């Protein structure tokens, strides 16, 4: 099995080298200058955070990379694609407004912000990959047309994939609305009537108006449902669920295949970072951030998107859980923290499938800088 290098920086700093400077040393070691060239349009793919969320990557840690890219005579821009669910990033106007309110103003990050799939998520490029589940992927047009791609992922837990790292930042995050629909299409939310209290939270958050309250219980219209999973995440009583063994594994495999599409033509023009800070139990799509489940660890960089996610999981699982967080099982060093939070989700499916289809390798060598 081929091993790839994953570079690691802890968060220790001195008066001689602060964290922004250490970040630039990390990406340099990982091969930044090998994936870019002067005048390249460089897409920095990140998550701007939902309004109210506080766990996303700090804008002040994005700025140093932008500045370095400009020193190297490239043209960097920050980007993401619009969401399926009814939040504050469902169209480009609201998305950009949210990004600025969360600190990603061009005057702060020194780069323009471009939502890759257009005003309402319909601007995409068709990318043919002919994989097992996805034959043609629909990727945000401005990401496809960029010369280079740098993924800056905040690594955290996730309610549908166990964790969200580089693969999710690319496969789901770069997909247009049609691409997101394709990945979610096999998720089948079902209401557990005994748990449902008819509070209406799911109705309020359903962008497709597929949920109603009948006789005091939520009812999902399968003809309108697109499988975005927002109702699963938002229900305060855990009354909406999916067929975990079948649906979630398929979702992860589709996400991996979409990652392959995002990287088509860019395998030698891409670099990946995982920020292991504020490691919250759930996605940054929530309008809040729960307490971190383990201490801050550091930052990873690699040219292999599979290896960097595997390394992130391994580093997190070596930690002891933080007291007072939502993680109450698998809390000891060496235990699986993400299975502790989401016991029904086998997060390894995304890594195994990504390796099978040739995106990268799960074996790696960790290189501390």
Gyration radius (Cα, Å) is 20 Å
Spans with pLDDT under 50 lasting ≥5 residues?
none
Shape: globular
Percent range for β-strand residues = 15-25%
What does this structure look like?
There is one protein chain. The chain has 369 residues and is of the alpha/beta class. Helix content is 32%, strand content 20%. The chain has helices at 19-30, 32-35, 59-71, 92-101, 106-109, 141-145, 166-171, 177-184, 201-205, 230-234, 244-263, 305-317, 337-341, 348-356, and strands spanning 4-9, 41-45, 75-80, 113-115, 124-128, 136-140, 148-154, 156-158, 162-164, 190-191, 211-214, 217-220, 240-241, 270-276, 298-302, 364-368. The chain has an 8-stranded mixed β-sheet, sandwiched between helices. It is globular, with a radius of gyration of 20 Å. The chain starts with a strand and ends with a strand. The model has no long low-confidence stretch (mean pLDDT 95).
Short description:
This protein has 369 residues and is of the alpha/beta class. The protein has helices spanning 19-30, 32-35, 59-71, 92-101, 106-109, 141-145, 166-171, 177-184, 201-205, 230-234, 244-263, 305-317, 337-341, 348-356, and strands at residues 4-9, 41-45, 75-80, 113-115, 124-128, 136-140, 148-154, 156-158, 162-164, 190-191, 211-214, 217-220, 240-241, 270-276, 298-302, 364-368. 32% of the residues lie in helices and 20% in strands.
Give a quick set of tags describing it:
single chain; 369 residues; alpha/beta; 8-stranded mixed beta sheet; two-stranded antiparallel ribbon; 14 helices; 32% helix; 20% strand; globular
